[in-house]
Structures are given as C-alpha cells and as structure tokens.
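Posting this for the archive.
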Amino acid sequence: MPSSPYSVLFVCTGNICRSAMAERLLAGRLDVHSASVTAASAGTRAVVGRPMSSQTRPLVVAHGGDPDGFVARQLDERMLRQADLVLGMTREHCDRASTLEPSAFARIFPLMEFARGVADEADMSATDDADRWRRLVAIATDRRRRGVLKSMADDDVADPYGHSSAAFTEMARKIVPVIDMLVGQAGAQS
C-alpha cells in the first residue's frame, strides 16, 4: 500500500504572491510522475478564491512554474495538521500557524531560516524523495533545538503586494534560489 505524499505547505498573508510563487515553483521542479512530494500554499488573511497576482504570474512562468489554475486559500488547522513541513514567508506567518495548530510547531519554519539551516545538507539527490525531505526537516529541527539555527533580520520575504515591480523582482530573487536549493538544484539557472 503506497504511503501518502510528503506535503510542503507555504504560508504568507494573501496567498496570491509569495506563497503562491513558492508553491508553483516547487511543484514545477518536482517529478510529476512520482508524486512522493506535493506543494501547496495558503494565507493567514487570504484573498480566498483569487488567482495569483498579475505581477507574480510572469515571474513564476519565467522561473519554470505554472500559475494556471491557482486559487488562494485561507490557512486552517486541518492544513497545518496534514502538512509535513510548513514554510512561512515571515516569522509572523510562522507564529500565526503555530497559534492556529500548536501540534505543528516542530514542522514550522520561516522559509529563509529553513534554507539556511539545511543548505549544507541539500545535495543534488532526487527532488521528489520524501525521505530526503524528512531528513532535511530533522536536521533543521535538531539545529533549532540546539540553538544553532536562529532567526536573522533578513529572514522575512517582504510582501510585494501593492508595490512596484522591483518589489516583485526582489521577492523572486529571494524565493527562487531557495526552492532550487531545496530540490537539489543549487546554482541551477531558471
């Protein structure tokens, strides 16, 4: 009997820019034939039912993702219980997720902090290996517990919504290399 896929849930505020981009980039880099890892996203104050923002869509396409069919969702306890890894775009998103579902705390990290915590372990192995993702979470959790992994001032991915195209470019500049690194494509060209 096959096990359920390893699920990665990205969280931001409206779920139409940052977490939407991360979801669709990760999904685009996973082996669609295997489905042992899945990507999803939600917002703490989601613009429920809205498509990805018009300024995010071309960036997702330019970096190998597919924005078609995306619909914003509101974060809830069920999503947090079911996710194997929750990656918030800011510390505030992580705090909100932990408050909603305290049992998920050990699996919730700011995206940039998690990436920093596993960068030396994220090798070039298979992008869709659920065991690999479990190992990365165990490493980050252990490093956080030992105080080796700490928050940094620039861990937050700033919300570009309502700002210039430069803010969206900066969002992509932070998210794209992290997604590539997490799937074992460090240094990959998108």
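The first helix runs from residue 18 to 29. The mean pLDDT is 89.
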